[in-house]
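[Automated response] Your request has been received and processed.

Submitted sequence:
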Amino acid sequence: MALHYGFWDENVQSHRQALWNMNYQIAKNAQIKKTDIVLDAGCGVGGTSFFLANNIGCFVEGISLSEAHIKRALEYKKIHDPKNLVKFTCQNFCNTSFPDNSFDVIFGIESVVHAENKTDFLKEAFRLLKPGGRLLISDYFLRQPQSTDERLILKKWADSWAIDDFIYEDNFLIEVKKTGFNLFFLKDISKNVYPSIKLMHRSYYPRIFISRISNFFGRRTNKQLENSKSGKFQYQSYSSKVWKYKHFLAFKNLNENLNTFEDFVKTDPPCEFYVDNEKLRERFPILSKKGFIGRNILKRTMHYYLEKGIKNSHKRF
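Generated structure:
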């Protein structure tokens, strides 16, 4: 139920665990507690919302502009929200229906980049946060492109990923100050998402092949075909050092002296750490009580291709 890069560290050996670990990092870096009321801004199909509710015990509001995502999230809720701590609605996170001072924490994982106007999002987040509330954004932060090639690659990436405009770091931080946040930090975690950047680049080659065939037979739209190219363009723009992946943490009217990101992030883990020891043959059995499962051969092959040696920082591909 995850739609993000994930977070790789020394404890992570698979992309699936990296996705889990990003949720863990959100809980840790925003210091989310059981008593907090949390807004998942751009919740996708609800994966992080369910993680926080089930592992921390806090109440979470998940919102998205995608009716399809909210519909799936509500289906998942029947299984993954036994304590009824998560609520989903279809809303624009730049203009919500919630009253002022509704939330202790607002977070967005690779969603704020899709806001048509980032300032509108910041103003709405500031309005919704209680005094002392925290805003945590995990996303791509860009510098201004310096050549025609860089601008071209960014345009191709934006078009393939349905992004109207990226988060340009310098301009964004100016708007953060204007909005009224009295303290904020940026933490570069590019090395912790780099394996997934490479993984998406690897996925480009089989995806574009399958997408072109599917598009020819009318099984995929032109927009879906363009989306299959995004893995290539995000990798090229990252390799050109146009963007870095960062955690952004901001506070509304915080009456506390903090000098660094680490001053706020306490050492106590938010929950028990999950280690994914399941082998591909266990996850995708070819023979089961139901008989032969041929598609699991392809699934094993694809996961092996995508993740083999992915943590080796010296291998670009």
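Summary generated for your ticket: The beta strands are 37-41, 59-64, 86-90, 103-109, 129-142, 167-168, 183-188, 243-251, 287-288, 291-292. The chain has two domains: 15-150+158-198+241-267, 282-317.
If you did not submit this request, please reply to this message.
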